[in-house]
């Protein structure tokens, strides 16, 4: 059986196989993908040869194929791959490797690739996964593993949530305190209100060289890396270093607790805007793509309401209220980002400001389309990213969001008219890491959700079918076995015996500290 995730647009199965051996020559266009093909197949033990002329496996540039799409024709004597861009060629390789299961072969003399014709292209443009590294840090190796799995599943945007109340994790040369002091908290909230009174975070940040390394690694996998610097809320780690950024100017600790904090940046004062612009100046040099995420979620206005500076600013600008003040701030940042050729993305709470620039891209995560204002936003012709929290949040365990529910996400199931499809840039799922304290739990929460995420982003609506998707999962599971990735198995992702294992329950927490191996039977 042909087992490919995400399911391609059109598959015609043939008879016979192409045999990939030491004698195989890989030629034609797309030099980077040719190298990647030979490298992936070499893990099976076979080293093929690359040429620039026509060969057994031949890559051809064909401008009639759509962006990121490909036409893959496997015959007994040859393989032809047509694409209009290197990304399309790269995606044909992700299909090819699953077609012949090469990732799980070792020490073989030949790899049999079943004859077929596959025509394929993506449904959405921005197919994204988000990782929060502020609450708990991920190593470079863990991030690279996520990127590898994203590429296999044809995801193309890595949204990097780099800063939050509990830690600042990206080096900013002009403000070294941010990572020296702002990366460190005095303790960590455990299940319920229990605390672990242990310093966390010293040295746990990415240098600008680390960032460049990840951006470059991802680029080879046709993945764009997009930074998020959350503002003006979720900024406590920065306020800890530079108290003058807040309304009251008091020194406050990097947060040891989760949730929404009243301490936010003071938009009325004159310190926050230059600070944010300095941060943007450094960050845009590291991320060579067209998007910048400013967060903007969960900004309680309690402090602004009593801050003389914020009050004066609202008056000076003739604004209605504090929501409009955040809207003004966002529009200023949007204009600044435009001078750097960046589009601005923010979480959907920023729609509370009525005068928000239509150029903003809204990431919809909370409340209904009506209550969030997303319906009106779309009616104006504006753009959104779908991240429905009740379905896609990977920090929630499978008893809250089983894989079938996860897979069901689409415009209509989210209450949107299908007419808006062209305004939806893509579907994105985040992993927030408040309770993700080790790599195994990170893997367990992400996989096989990432496979479903790939499919709901890439595969046409007509081709989406959960039962069919499940029949294709075992190959990816075997690939993950070979990589020692502890994914949730079927018993776990369909929630048998997972009652009362909320994301912060004792069972999860103990497991994450490797004290309780009750979970082991639910994952590989
Ligand atoms: C969010 O989950 N606060 C975007
Ligand atoms: Zn203020």
Overview of the structural elements:
The protein has 524 residues and is of the alpha/beta class. 33% of the residues lie in helices and 17% in strands. It has 19 helices and 19 strands. The strands form four sheets. Strands 14-9-8-19-18-17-16-15 form an eight-stranded parallel β-sheet. Strands 1-7-5-6-4-2-3 form a seven-stranded mixed β-sheet, covered by helices on one side. Strands 10-11 form a two-stranded antiparallel sheet. A hairpin with a 5-residue loop joins strand 12 (188-189) and strand 13. The longest helix has 18 residues, at 322-339. It is elongated. The two termini are 23 Å apart. It binds acetamide and zinc ion. Residues 247, 266, 268-269, 304, 307, 309-310 line the site of zinc ion.
The molecules bound to the chains, other than polymers, are: acetamide, zinc ion
Shape: elongated
User: Which blocks of ≥5 consecutive residues have pLDDT under 50?
Assistant: 513-518
The percent range for strand residues is 15-25%
Give the overall pLDDT as a whole number: 94
The major sheet is characterized as: 8 strands, parallel
Task: Determine the structural class based on helices, strands and strand pairing.
Answer: alpha/beta
Instruction: Name the strands of the widest sheet in spatial order.
Output: 14-9-8-19-18-17-16-15
Distance separating the two termini: 23 Å
- Calculate Rg over CA atoms: 24 Å
Roughly how much helix do the residues carry, as a percent range?
25-40%
- Helical run tally: 19
The count of β-strands is: 19
């Amino acid at each position: 059986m042909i087992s490919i995730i995400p399911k391609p647009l059109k598959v015609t199965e043939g008879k016979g196989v192409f045999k990939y051996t030491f004698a195989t020559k890989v030629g034609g266009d797309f030099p980077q993908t040719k190298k990647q093909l030979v490298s992936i197949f070499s893990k099976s033990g076979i080293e093929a040869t690359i040429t620039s002329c026509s060969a057994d496996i031949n890559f051809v540039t064909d401008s009639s194929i759509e962006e990121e799409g490909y036409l893959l024709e496997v015959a007994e004597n040859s393989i032809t791959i047509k694409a209009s861009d290197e990304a399309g060629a790269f995606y044909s390789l992700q299909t090819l490797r699953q077609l012949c299961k090469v990732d799980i072969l070792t020490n073989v003399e030949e790899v049999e690739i079943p004859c077929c014709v596959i025509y394929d292209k993506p449904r959405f443009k921005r197919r994204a996964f988000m990782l929060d590294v502020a609450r708990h840090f991920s190593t470079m190796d863990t991030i690279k593993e996520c990127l590898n799995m994203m590429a296999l599943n044809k995801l193309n945007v890595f949204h990097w949530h780099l800063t939050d109340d509990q830690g600042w994790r990206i080096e900013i040369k002009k403000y070294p305190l941010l990572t020296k002091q702002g990366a460190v908290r005095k303790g960590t909230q455990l299940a319920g209100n229990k605390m672990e009174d242990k310093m966390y975070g010293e040295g746990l940040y990415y240098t600008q060289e680390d960032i460049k390394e990840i951006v470059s690694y991802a680029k080879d996998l046709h993945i764009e890396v997009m930074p998020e610097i959350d503002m003006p809320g979720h900024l406590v780690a920065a306020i800890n270093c530079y108290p003058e950024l807040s309304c009251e100017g008091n020194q406050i600790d990097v947060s040891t607790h989760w949730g929404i904090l009243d301490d936010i940046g003071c938009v009325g004062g004159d310190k926050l805007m230059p600070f944010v612009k300095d941060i943007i100046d450094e960050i845009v040099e590291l991320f060579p793509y067209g998007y910048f995420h400013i967060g903007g979620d969960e900004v309680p206005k309690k402090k602004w309401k009593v801050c003389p500076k914020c009050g004066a600013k609202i008056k000076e600008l003739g604004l209605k209220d504090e929501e409009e003040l955040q809207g003004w701030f966002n529009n200023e940042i949007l204009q600044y980002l435009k001078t750097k050729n960046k589009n601005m993305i923010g979480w959907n709470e920023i729609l509370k400001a009525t005068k928000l620039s239509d150029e903003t891209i809204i990431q919809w995560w909370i409340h209904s389309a009506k209550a969030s204002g997303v319906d009106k936003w779309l009616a104006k012709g504006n753009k959104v990213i779908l991240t429905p929290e009740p379905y896609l949040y990977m920090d929630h365990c499978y008893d809250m969001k089983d894989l079938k529910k996860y897979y069901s996400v689409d415009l209509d199931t989210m209450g949107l008219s299908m007419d808006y499809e062209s305004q939806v840039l893509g579907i994105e799922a985040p992993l927030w890491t408040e309770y993700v304290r080790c790599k195994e739990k990170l893997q367990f929460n992400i996989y096989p959700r990432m496979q479903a995420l790939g499919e709901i982003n890439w595969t046409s609506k007509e081709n989406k079918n959960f039962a069919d998707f499940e029949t294709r999962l075992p190959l990816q599971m075997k690939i993950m076995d070979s990589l020692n990735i502890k994914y949730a198995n079927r018993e776990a992702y369909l929630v048998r015996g997972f009652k009362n294992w909320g994301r912060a329950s004792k069972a999860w927490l103990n497991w994450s500290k490797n004290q309780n191996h009750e979970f082991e039977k639910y994952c590989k």
